[in-house]
Amino acid sequence: MEVSAKPVSEAHVVTDDAGVLRLAGGQCAECDAFSFPRAQVCVGCLSEDIVISALPDSGVLYSYAVIRVGDEHEKLPYAIGYVDLSNGVRVLSRLTDMDQLSVDMPVSLHVARDGKGDSGALYKFWAAPKETANA
Amino acid sequence: MRDVSVIGVGMIPFGRHRGKSTVDLAWPAVKQALADAGTDRADIEMTFSGSSYGGMLTGQRILNKLGMTGPPVINVENACSSGSTAMFEARRAVSHGDCDVALVIGVDSLTQFGGGTIPLVDDDWEVSQGMTMPALYAMRARRYMHDFGATEEQLAKVSVKARSHGARNPDAQFQKTVTVEEVLGSRPIADPLTLLQCCPTGDGAAAAIICAADVAGRFEGEAVKILASELCSGKFTNGFRDMTSMEIAIRGAGIAYEQAGLGPDDIDVAEVHDAFSIAELLYYEAFGFCERGEAVQLLESGETTIGGKIVVNPSGGLLAKGHPIGGTGVAQVVEIIRQLRGQCGDRQAEGAKIGLTHATGGGAMGMDSGACSIHIFAR
Question: For chain A, which terminus, N or C, has the lower number of CB atoms within 10 Å?
């Protein structure tokens, strides 16, 4: 499924053991606190030793909005929502299926290549309702 | 710590003043406040000027126009709390004895950007991913509707009330009443919020003059005491937050009530930060005007409408009076001072003795809001 999402740099993406692209969060090497995007300095303990940690690839949709007026460079409308993950991180994500969304529904997170920018590969990520996860 | 009073207020009608500079919006409000207070220009010892989009030295540029140059000017930026933060700083300066008389200005021009949603900071991750202010509040609304069974019609009633109040305020950007059907039928902005549930693009300025309570007798302006002056910032988290419970406002309200030595039952009239319809409902609960989940019942009871027990946003609030970012916090003070003085004509909250203002600023990733400033006043 085509979803309009803002491109993100390769710093936000990691390939997991199964060869699948995942969002790259951070985990503090000192106190284990998670972050996304990966923190440069841990808000819990101020450590700067933050290792890359692949975010879970599914979660629960806390809430969402369908945006009909916004940035004129965006393709409108588009849906965004907060996806709550099992490691305690909340991710703001674009959403597919904007007419079938509901609060607390299970969603899966997807990452894909999205061309190349001036400073390396670009990616996009989005969430889709679990029932229609073939985005 | 000395007691501090407001002795003069002024504002220009909020609206689209296209082509007017920030400076030209603001100086008439300052002149009006000087006249209302009965102060001479030379009485002003310090000025605190709140604005988000006014540019460098906004306060000095405004005062240049009025020949009020020389004394210290402190320019304040705190998003939608810029004006209320200027108030907080001015009250602090007078209270601590740094000066006896201070001027507070709040101003912004939003028509300079054309229209649409306000420009946010690009390096915020969520903004870079497509977050807008209406979307942030739409998500609050969606979750609140899910958790407490509120309907789109009930959300729309907040705007109906706001517009009915604004229709009685000559300084309001919108002067006409609207129906629930008109609110729901207006242009969708960020579902479930429609255009009439979002504060408008507009320009405005407001000013207040405060002084140490023990010198207030030197001036003609009718003094109103500041019982509480609070400023706090949002708390950051990477994790889960309950978007229907405004932690920053609950915390701020607790501080303000404690300073004033009173509670929600004592408030007669309040100007709260209703940037979007859902926001007013969340703030009823945050301020303890009702229990959690009961905001719709309070709204529908009519007790927050003019004539009710605790009148909320008699000016029309941000939804109807308008929301020129930095101007809002000081304009709220203008309304509450006029309410407590009994100067509000057919939008008067009868017999109001205690009033509250609340301006909360900005969306930043991982926070309820960036800043929250609350003041409580007594006649």
Answer: N
Q: What is the DSSP letter of B215?
A: G
Q: Which two tokens stand for residue B370?
A: 């960036």
Residue with tokens 């006043």: B377
Compute the distance between CA of residue B247 and CA of residue B369 in angstroms, rounded to an integer: 9
- Chain A residue numbers with beta carbons less than 8 Å from the beta carbon of B243 are 62-63, 82
Q: Chain A residues contacting B, CB < 8 Å?
A: 5-6, 33-37, 39, 43, 62-72, 74, 78, 80-82, 84, 88-90, 92-94, 103-104
- pTM (2 decimals)? 0.95
Local structure of residue B120 (DSSP, 8 states)? -
- pLDDT of B200 strictly over 80: yes
- d(CA B278, CA B280) in angstroms, rounded, equals 6
Percentages helix, strand, coil for chain A (3-state, rounded to 5) are 5, 50, 45
Could you tell me if B316 and B166 are in contact, meaning their C-beta atoms sit under 8 angstroms apart? yes
CB of B132 within 8 Å of a chain A CB? The answer is yes
Return d(Cα A103, Cα B149) in angstroms, integer. Answer: 12
Task: Please tell me the distance from the alpha carbon of residue B172 to that of residue B316, in angstroms, as a whole number.
Answer: 7
Mean pLDDT for all residues in chain B: 96
Catalytic residue among B17, B165, B273, B323: B323
Res A135 pLDDT > 60 = no
pLDDT score recorded for residue A71: 82
Q: Evaluate whether B353 touches B268 at the Cβ level (below 8 Å).
A: yes
